[in-house]
Specification:
Strands 14-15-16-13-12-17-18 form a seven-stranded mixed β-sheet, sandwiched between helices. The chain is of the alpha/beta class and 487 residues long. It is globular, with a radius of gyration of 23 Å. The model has no long low-confidence stretch (mean pLDDT 98). Helix content is 38%, strand content 21%. It folds into two domains: 279 residues, Aldehyde Dehydrogenase, Chain A, domain 1; 188 residues, Aldehyde Dehydrogenase, Chain A, domain 2, CATH 3.40.309. Bound molecules: NADP nicotinamide-adenine-dinucleotide phosphate. NADP nicotinamide-adenine-dinucleotide phosphate (NAP) binds next to helix 8 and helix 9.
């Protein structure tokens, strides 16, 4: 195999729309530039789908639905298993692709390849375990047969921060359940999804089951699809305001919905925590994906008895990180996705400083090419700072102290979001009590990362609904039908 270079990788990625098993240009021949956030330079261009292309993608998904639903579960399972193996073999290609279009360091992209592909292995195992029930009605006169059937064609809208995993955790269960799909990846990071579509075809996914449209006319293309009676489900990962708007649009057809929305994760360090363990957890919870994760720790609440030690050790680890283009050896912090992201982080930081916060380390955007922001720790961040309420989506860690458990829990729950919370304590009963009191879909105890394909990922409140992964993940793509049989 020839050596993998940036050029060879970019040249090898398909650039068209993938509709009905074939690659094609957009109907009007237009393209969208894909940028490298580490340099601000254009990497390549991909097709810019029109409204007619969007409709064609749903036509293909709708046409393939009944034969795909009738495909033996073992066949669907084998396709997923083969895809898992092929992605794993091609880890370096997928990792480089993500690093180039999204910016995260190569080591993190390799981590995402392992995490993202694991959804295919997991759902390969789930595909052959879909089952129903058989029971006798209480009056004894009829039998009740309960079966699970695929929901039908699904529209999948994914964000730019995890270009592979946010796709595989939707595509995996859809394939396993027998649903066809139209995938619309984020405009800023379409390449990984195009590479994945090609790979799925190579391992035998039939034409029409997966269709991918890249577009800059997102709203114009998605809304008619969401209002089309042939679509049966919408699964969306992205920001809460867009998610709410899509929920409104989907009311017309009463679509099944999975909404994986924004977060505002609290990170609680109790007085009896192992501080070194908490610092290691904080590094993961804050700096995974350059802070651009819905699961990113957004607010650090630290008991006053350990606050000085925690802040000092955490700041030392943050200051020791190496910022740069993710393809460079030794780089541990890549760029943010775009100039808007840098401006938002700067604005939130300035607001916190104006309200009395103090910089322990970092605090500045880097001048020059690319969208870099220093790993930053802030102390004495007041409750009214905007970053206590809003998603930072960048490498800034605000620390606030607390005295009592009740105070910590109350601050942690004081948000409309409810995706994930982290807590560090060596006291088992405190860990259980606090986990139960936190109004979140997921809680990490003494760990700074919760994502696991075998676990149900998802939130409550304004972080959305539905679960991805675990035994629950496939249920989102299945309908329950009951057949009553009179004897
Ligand atoms: P975003 O702006 O909401 O975009 C997400 C996706 O929605 C993109 O594909 C985007 O397309 C599309 N979109 C935008 N406007 C749309 C419209 N009017 N109709 C249909 N689709 C539309 O979010 P983002 O900035 O990419 O992602 C960051 C957000 O995602 C954060 O809030 C983060 O917390 C959340 N997130 C949540 C999870 C979770 O599992 N809960 C996981 C990862 C990220 P374009 O690219 O064309 O704009």
């Amino acid at each position: 195999m020839p050596a993998l270079t940036q050029k060879s990788l970019i040249d090898s990625v398909p650039k068209g729309l993938f509709i009905g098993g074939a690659w094609r240009d957009s109907a009007d021949g237009t393209t969208i530039a894909v940028e490298d956030p580490a340099t601000g330079r254009t990497l390549t261009e991909v097709a810019d789908a029109t409204v007619a292309d969007g409709r064609a993608a749903l036509d293909a998904a709708a046409a393939a639905q009944s034969s795909w639903a009738a495909t033996p579960p073992r066949d669907r399972s084998e396709i997923l298993r083969a895809a898992y193996e092929r992605i794993t073999e091609r880890t370096e290609e997928f990792a480089l692709c993500m690093t180039l279009e999204m910016g995260k360091p190569l080591a993190e992209s390799r981590g995402e390849v392992a995490y993202g592909s694991e959804f295919f292995r997991w759902f390969a195992e789930e595909a052959v375990r879909i089952s129903g029930r058989w029971s006798t009605a209480p009056n004894g006169a009829t039998r009740l047969m309960t079966m699970k059937q695929p929901v039908g064609p699904v529209l999948m809208i994914t964000p730019w921060n995890f270009p592979l995993a946010m796709g595989t955790r939707k595509i995996g269960p859809a394939i396993a359940a027998g649903c066809t799909m139209v995938v619309k990846p984020a405009t800023q990071t379409p390449l990984t999804m195009l590479l994945l579509a090609e790979l799925l075809t190579e391992v035998g996914l039939p034409a029409g089951v997966l269709n991918v449209i890249t577009t800059s006319h997102t709203q114009d293309i998605c809304e008619p699809l969401i209002r089309d009676p042939r679509l049966r489900k919408l699964t969306f990962t992205g920001s809460t305001p867009i998610g709410k708007m899509l929920v409104e649009q989907s009311a017309e057809q009463l679509l099944r919905l999975s909404m994986e929305l924004g977060g505002n994760a609290p990170f609680l360090v109790f007085g009896d925590a192992d501080v070194d363990k908490a610092v290691t957890g904080a590094m993961l919870a804050k700096m995974r994906n350059i802070g651009e994760a819905c699961t990113a720790a957004n607010r650090f609440y630290v008991h006053e008895s350990v606050a000085a030690e925690f802040s000092q050790k955490f700041a030392a680890r943050m200051a020791a990180m190496t910022m740069g283009k993710g393809t460079k050896k030794g780089v541990t912090v890549g760029p943010l996705i775009d100039a808007k992201a840098v401006a938002k982080v700067t604005e939130l930081l300035d607001d916190a400083l104006a309200k009395g916060a103090r910089v322990v380390t970092g605090g500045e955007a880097q001048k020059g090419a690319g969208y870099f922001f220093q790993p930053t720790v802030l102390a004495d961040v007041p409750k009214n700072a905007r970053m206590q309420k809003e998603e930072i989506f960048g490498p800034v860690a605000p620390i606030t102290t607390f005295r009592t458990d009740a105070e910590a829990i109350s601050m942690a729950n004081d948000t409309e979001f409810g995706l994930v919370a982290y807590l560090f304590t060596e006291n088992l009963s405190r860990a259980v009590r606090v986990s139960e009191a936190l109004e979140y879909g997921m809680v990490g105890v003494n760990q700074g990362i919760v994502s696991n394909p075998a676990a149900p990922f998802g939130g409550v409140k304004h972080s959305g609904y539905g679960r991805e992964g675990g035994a629950e993940g496939i249920e989102e793509y299945l309908e329950t039908k009951y057949v009553g049989i009179a004897l």
